[in-house]
Amino acid sequence: MELQTLAPHRDAPTLFIDFDGTLHDGRAVIDTDGHVSLDTGRPLFEYAPLLIALLEPYPSVEIILTTSWLQKLPTEKVISYLPAGLARRVVGTTQDIKPRLSYVLNGSERTYVIASYAYGHRLKKWLAIDDSAYGAYHFGREPGELAQNFILLDSARGISDADVQQRIRQWLFDVREDGSPSHA
Questions:
Q1: Left if phi > 0, otherwise alpha if psi is -120 to 50, otherwise beta: which for 135?
Q2: Cα(143)–Cα(111) distance, rounded to whole angstroms?
Q3: pLDDT of residue 116
Q4: Residue 130: φ, ψ to 5°
Q5: Domain total of the chain
Q6: pTM here?
Q7: Of all residues in the chain, what percent are helix, strand and coil, respectively (each to 5)?
Q8: Which stretches of the chain drop beneath a pLDDT of 50?
Q9: For the chain, first and last CA: distance in Å?
Q10: Per residue in 6-42, pLDDT tens?
Q11: Domain assignment of residue 29, yes or no
């Protein structure tokens, strides 16, 4: 299934996911052949199994990629690096949303891009897990309105942090209509 044929469902629980500092410790180094390694020497996607396990009881959760890898590699190549348990959930990317210069200068460009995507697609239940989503309090119609939709990660721990995993678990529980996991 190609990404172009997919679109997020506005009622589906949707996770915005970064790679570097989220699913592994380190920043991507992409060579001219498109091979990826991390500047830390750590394994790619070392924390991905944690997210796969968290999402397993919730088959309706969709993923939107926010990674900067999309600036250097084709979307299909970026998705191919993901473990299958995450890759099959990807329904979109934020790569076509360009932040205003003011957001780039103040460091909140990723937050702007995610919020713009969520509003533009009228997503109702979404969460962004990212190590560079700063300034969330300032986005939305009211100050603080979107702050609960963002989890700002410690880039060295990403989603391996137990508190972050608990926040994701709680969000997954809260966005279920009946409050219980679905086993499909």
A1: left
A2: 14
A3: 86
A4: -160, 150
A5: 1
A6: 0.86
A7: 35, 15, 50
A8: 1-2, 4-5, 179-180, 182-184
A9: 20
A10: 566 778 899 999 999 999 999 999 988 888 999 999 9
A11: yes
What three-state secondary structure class fits 27?
A: coil
Cα dist. 9→64, 118, 126, 136 in Å? 11, 11, 11, 23
CB 102 within 8 A of CB 111: no
**How many CA atoms lie less than 13 Å away from 83 in the CB half-sphere?**
16
**pLDDT value for 91:** 95
The CATH code of the domain that includes 74 is: 3.40.50
Coil vs helix vs strand at 83? coil
In a domain, 46, yes or no: yes
For residue 136, being part of any structural domain is answered with yes
Task: Enumerate residues 6+ apart whose C-beta is below 8 A from 150.
Answer: 111, 114, 127, 128, 130, 133, 136
Q: Is residue 27 part of a domain?
A: yes
CA distances from residue 178 to 102, 130, 172, 173, 174 in whole angstroms, order as listed: 41, 28, 11, 9, 9
Q: Which of 88, 70, 71 is nearest to 6 (CA)?
A: 88
Range of the domain at 133: 7-175
User: Cα separation of 120 and 153, whole Å?
Assistant: 25
In terms of C-beta density within 10 A (0-12 exposed, 13-18 middle, 19 or more buried), how is residue 87 classed?
A: middle
Tokens at 56, concatenated = 């397993």
Place of tokens 């360009």: 98
151 phi/psi in degrees, rounded to 5: -115, 110
